[in-house]
Task: inverse folding
């Protein structure tokens, strides 16, 4: 059950980032993040009355607000890096950093997995790293020479740290709080980027196409957050966050078939490793 929730969040996260990256190429990053977060907030507010009653503690509110600030900053950095760099490089780079923070935290707290499950987690991290390798043009020696980090790589690293804190923060909320921590997260992120837009005097206006893509991305991102938070509350954090971080595979595939970005043999092997990791983790589960 938790594996399916985590994998579902992975697919939704990367679909959301794909639409967010497309929007960031048509509008400024601040507007993109603001409206994506706002759409998610409105949708969740509409759904809340139909959900079971919740008991929200001050701890849940705090973790929700922390998740909002860290997640908002992480999304902004990610969208900007997606706008200036190749999606097939940026998304996996963010993912591997974002996965490492909660996984290390879980192990520090004493969470232990079966041996084969640990192998699956390690294989998933290898898969993320392989998928993040940029494709090169073998017909040109000049293009294959290393020229430092690819565009957007540095921003993707910082985005990974922020997203990792976001993952960890949502996982620290209680089941009794229901979806309210996500409300807190969205309120804080919307307020943050609304204030940034006001201070920086950046317009929040978008074209019709950008509005459509950002709304789609915002809705998908909120759905992904809900699935992830539920899974992280009831399952081992190391497994949940690793599966949720396998989203680069779907991003790379979308970038390949929609945007025409090339896939290298290394990236293809990374996708294969990701599929193998999913099979291992789902079949084994956590130690009892």
Result:
């Amino acid at each position: 059950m938790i594996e399916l929730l985590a994998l579902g969040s992975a697919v939704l996260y990367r679909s959301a980032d794909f639409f967010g990256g497309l929007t960031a190429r048509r509008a400024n990053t601040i507007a993109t993040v603001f409206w994506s977060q706002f759409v998610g907030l409105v949708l969740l507010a509409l759904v809340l009355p139909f959900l079971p009653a919740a008991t929200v503690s001050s701890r849940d509110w705090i973790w929700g607000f922390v998740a909002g600030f860290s997640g908002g900053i992480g999304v902004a950095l990610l969208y900007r890096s997606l706008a200036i760099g190749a999606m097939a490089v940026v998304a996996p780079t963010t993912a591997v950093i974002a996965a490492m923070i909660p996984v290390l935290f879980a192990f520090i707290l004493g969470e232990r997995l079966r041996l084969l499950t640990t192998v699956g987690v390690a294989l998933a991290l290898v898969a993320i790293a392989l998928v993040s390798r940029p494709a090169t043009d073998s017909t040109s020696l000049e293009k294959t020479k290393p020229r430092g980090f690819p565009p957007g790589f540095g921003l993707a690293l910082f985005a990974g740290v922020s997203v990792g804190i976001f993952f960890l923060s949502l996982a620290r909320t209680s089941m009794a709080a229901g979806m309210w921590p996500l409300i807190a997260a969205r309120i804080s992120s919307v307020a943050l980027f609304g204030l940034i837009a006001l201070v920086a005097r950046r317009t929040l206006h978008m074209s019709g196409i950008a509005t459509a893509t950002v709304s789609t991305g915002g809705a998908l991102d909120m759905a992904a957050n809900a699935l992830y938070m539920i899974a992280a509350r009831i399952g081992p954090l190391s497994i949940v966050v690793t599966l949720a971080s396998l989203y680069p595979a779907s991003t790379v595939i979308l970038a390949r078939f929609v945007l025409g970005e090339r896939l290298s043999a290394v990236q293809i092997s990374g996708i294969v490793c990701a599929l193998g990791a999913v099979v291992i983790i789902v079949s084994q589960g956590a130690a009892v």
Remarks:
- Residues 2-136+150-284 form one domain.
- The chain has a mean pLDDT of 79.
